[in-house]
């Protein structure tokens, strides 16, 4: 699948997919990488070393720094794939150096799929 590069880099890993937007501030614990937003479909799941797939971000601009904190604490996703990356997620992945691609039909990706993300080429492949 061809999309748009938001933050360069390459990653391979297991997809963890949400059909709901993700708010990083108050939604993911920056010390553990576990989704803590009450009622979110990924609540209790870790994003560490996964390819995190979701439609778009939501919430506070502090979310950018939560993404950076995830990386600094060694619990960040290996890459992020979005339908549409908004400025909070874009700023966070660039600060953290996390590969990110948007413009992807995320309905074609399921949790557990093995993905190859090449943000430099703006591609996402299900392996």
UniProtKB/TrEMBL annotation:
One of its GO terms (biological process) is isoprenoid biosynthetic process. InterPro entries: PMDh-S-like (IPR012016), PMDh-S-like_dom (IPR002840), PMDh_S (IPR020794). Residues 22-101 form the Phosphomevalonate dehydratase small subunit-like domain. The keyword Lyase applies. Coiled coil: none annotated. Pfam families: AcnX_swivel_put. The keyword Lyase applies. This is Phosphomevalonate dehydratase small subunit-like domain-containing protein.
């Amino acid at each position: 699948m061809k999309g748009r590069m938001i933050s360069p880099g390459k990653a391979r890993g297991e997809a963890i997919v949400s059909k709901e937007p993700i708010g990083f501030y108050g939604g993911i614990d920056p010390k553990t990488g576990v989704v803590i937003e009450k009622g979110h479909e990924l609540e209790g799941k870790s994003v560490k070393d996964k390819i995190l797939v979701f439609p778009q971000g939501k919430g506070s601009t502090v979310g950018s720094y939560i993404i950076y904190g995830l990386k600094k604490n060694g619990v960040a996703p290996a890459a992020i794939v979005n339908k549409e990356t908004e400025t909070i997620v874009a700023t966070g992945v660039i600060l953290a150096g996390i590969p990110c691609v948007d413009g992807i039909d995320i309905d074609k990706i399921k949790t557990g799929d093995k993905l190859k993300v090449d943000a430099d080429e703006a591609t996402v492949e299900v392996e």
